[in-house]
Request: fold
Amino acid sequence: MRHKDFQRWLKIRSRGLRRYVLVQGVLLYGLPMFVIMSVLLHREGQPLWLLGVSLLLWLLGGALFGWLLWRVNEWRFRRVLHRVRTRRRGKPSGE
Reply:
């Protein structure tokens, strides 16, 4: 994780997990995927309830995707913190 990415993640994580999942997962992944897949796979005579089920599944999938992205970014963030702390402990007191 570069310094720029680290700083960006600090700002994003201050807004919270719930907002991140909603924006990154549901709105920026699940909803566009639903629209794309609905247009590509649209069939005449398809019942409306099936479209509703598809929307629900894509939104839930988007939420899961957003949560997984959060976990990956948190793992990367904590790994950097651990490295920084380890380096600071290893330095001689004169530096």
